[in-house]
Amino acid sequence: MKIIVATGNADKMKEIREILGPSGFDICSQKEEGLSCDAEENGTTFAENALIKARNISGKYKHEDGAVVLADDSGLVIDALNGEPGIYSARYMGEDTSYHVKNAELIRRLTDVPVEKRTARFVCAVAAVLPDGREITAEGTIEGKIGYEERGENGFGYDPIFYLPDLSRSTAELSREEKNAISHRGNAIRAMKEKLDKIYGV
Ligand code: IMP
User: Fold this and answer.
1) How far apart are the first and last CA of the chain?
2) Contact status, residue 171 vs residue 117, Cβ threshold 8 Å
3) Cα separation of 66 and 64, whole Å?
4) Over the stretch 55-76, which tens digit does the pLDDT of each residue have?
5) How sure is the predictor about 21, in pLDDT bands with cuts at 50, 70 and 90?
């Protein structure tokens, strides 16, 4: 079965290939299929937004053999900020604002929040639209705390302020492999793999 991944992000493609490839799926990017997503992400949950992207690409793929279309949506949920930035994580303070500035602002907004209330999680929803129109979603999370300063050079986005108390490191201080093994996205893709393996009898 072919899986088309609705993302333009090379790192996500690599991670999805590493996790789903061994099940024997033929994994392609939307670019390799000459497709792109032009849907507005106006859902109210991560899963809705992932489904919007997957449906958009699925609707454009015209091939008698069909394909599973996979898309993801993710973000940072901070409890002390009522879940912000949440589904607006990429758009928080504007798409073009640097993450150094966004991270500094989130730390500033948590100035008076004590360490035990700085709980946060990265959330990732993965959605799949199957050739017969069935829709499946899976979700993964990773729990952490918002730090008091940026730490680490790896990763991207909010990684430098996302601190893992058990490891005494931020997710920007983990190698790619270390992060993938425990990340929200890794967990969501692994949960989706279980569902697809069952459906396609792997
Ligand atoms: P998207 O799901 O690729 O649209 O990502 C949404 C946004 O959430 C990203 O632009 C980042 O701001 C944030 N985000 C999602 N996953 C991570 C992560 O693993 N590390 C840091 N930031 C993340």
Assistant:
1) 11
2) no
3) 5
4) 999 999 987 778 999 999 999 9
5) confident
Collapsing DSSP to helix, strand or coil, 69 comes out as strand
Name the pairing type of β-strands 119-129 and 135-146: antiparallel
Q: Whose CA is nearest to atom 10 of ligand 1?
A: 90
Model confidence, pTM: 0.95
Cβ atoms of residues 72 and 50 within 8 Å: yes
pLDDT for 155-167, tens place per residue? Answer: 999 999 999 999 9
Using the atom order of ligand 1, give the atom closest to the CA of residue 9: 3
**Where residue 70 sits, what CATH number does that domain have?**
3.90.950.10
Give the type of residue at 174.
L
Q: Which two tokens stand for residue 36?
A: 């792109």
Q: Is the CB of 73 under 6 A from ligand 1?
A: yes
- Host domain of residue 177: 2-200
